[in-house]
Each structure stands twice: as C-alpha cells, then as structure tokens.
Design goal:
alpha+beta; OB fold (Dihydrolipoamide Acetyltransferase, E2P); Trna Endonuclease, Chain: A, domain 1; about 15% helix; globular
C-alpha cells in the first residue's frame, strides 16, 4: 500500500485519543490520530513523526508513521484489513455483519477479524496496548459462529519490521488474552504477520509465530 507524500514533523503532545499536537517549522498544528491505543513509546514529546495532509475535517494533518529507534512504525490502525486483503490478492468483502457484530473481512465465507499491532517489546509483538472490550466481544462472536459451522480467522498485522513472534498482552488485558487462548484451544485459526515499512509504502512481509500462553 502506497503512502501519499509524507511530511516530517516533531510530536509535541497528545490531547486525546484522536488528536495530537505536532511542530512543523515554526508552527504548531493539530493532527488526527487514527488509532485509539496508548502508543506511549511512539507518541512522546520530541519524537519524529510523518504526516499526510488532510483536505477535509478540522485537523490539517494526520500522523501516519512514527520513529522507533532506527525504524518506522505505521500507526494507522484502519489499514490493517486492507493490507491483509492486498497480501492475499483474492476477492474480499469488507466489513461483513453477523447479527450485532461487524467484522473486517469475509473471505470465501469465512469471517475474518484483522487487528492492527503497533507495540513490540524485545522482539515480541503485543496486542492490545490498552484494554479492549470490543476485541473480546469479537472473539466471543467468532467462537459462536464456529459452533454454527463457520471457520473464523483472526489475523494480527504488526505494522513494523522488528517483531519475531506475536503474543496477546496478558499484562494489559488478561480478559482479551484469555478469550484468545480459549479460541485457539477450540482449534480455531490465528495468524500473525509483520510488515515492511518505509516512507513510500507499507506491505505485509512474512508470517511470524503466535505464542499464546502467558509467560511465567
């Protein structure tokens, strides 16, 4: 997936889940954040970020990438399903709805939930980085659908290059992590991928192992 032309800036502060302040030249501007995670290791004062310009809305910019040491991390959580669909190169229905729950994709009749992962510690990609009741609800609904004959799939897209393995974040959200472990113990499928990221594009690079048990 190609990025629009990106603008280098300095992050100043996060006002709320969706808005940050960035420094560009001698001015300070508001920038949209398309991610409700905490992102504390990415969005901190003085860190370098890369912006796209917005033609609509009250914020002139959107934060697309953030530096982490010598690497780039894509913080746009909404693109994960499109990245996975682009990787598969097959017909895909976006945002199918099953009763009261909407998932990301429908692939050959399979409901697929795709999660954007931004947090990596010591080579381990972790999701979520903030508690998510919505994520737990998705897992419970996928289990219910499996009992009705569907073959659900959960995909974790790590939007950075430095992950060697994926794990649910037991420390931050034990309820989500337990639900994911239960899902796997029922024989249902989980996959995780890391991406290649530069200033021009992001794309799925390769699959990485999934480790579900909490470390003791």
């Amino acid at each position: 997936m190609k990025f629009p032309k990106l603008i280098k800036a300095e992050f100043k502060e996060r006002l709320n889940r969706f808005v940050g302040i960035i420094k560009l030249g001698q001015g300070a501007f508001s920038a949209y954040i398309r991610n409700t995670g905490r992102l504390k290791e990415l969005l901190f004062e003085g860190n370098t970020v890369y912006l796209s310009e917005r033609s609509r809305g009250k914020h002139p910019f959107e934060i697309v990438l953030a530096n982490f040491e010598d690497k780039l991390v894509c913080i746009d959580s909404h693109i994960a399903p499109r990245l996975y669909a682009e990787f598969l190169k097959c017909p895909t229905l976006f945002e199918p709805k099953f009763e009261d729950v909407r998932f990301d994709l429908l692939l050959g009749g399979r409901p697929v939930e795709v999660k954007s992962v931004n947090l990596v510690r010591l080579g381990t990609a972790l999701f979520p980085d903030a508690p998510t009741t919505r994520g737990k609800k998705h897992i419970e609904k996928l289990i219910e659908l499996s009992e009705r004959g569907y073959s659900p799939l959960i995909v974790f897209v790590v939007q950075r290059e430095d992950a060697e393995v994926f794990s649910p974040n037991w420390e931050v959200d034990p309820a989500f992590s337990s639900a994911l472990l239960n899902y796997a113990r029922l024989g249902l499928e989980i996959r995780a991928y890391r991406c290649s990221v530069d200033l021009r594009e992001i794309k799925l690079k390769e699959e990485i192992p999934v480790r579900l048990e909490a470390l003791r």
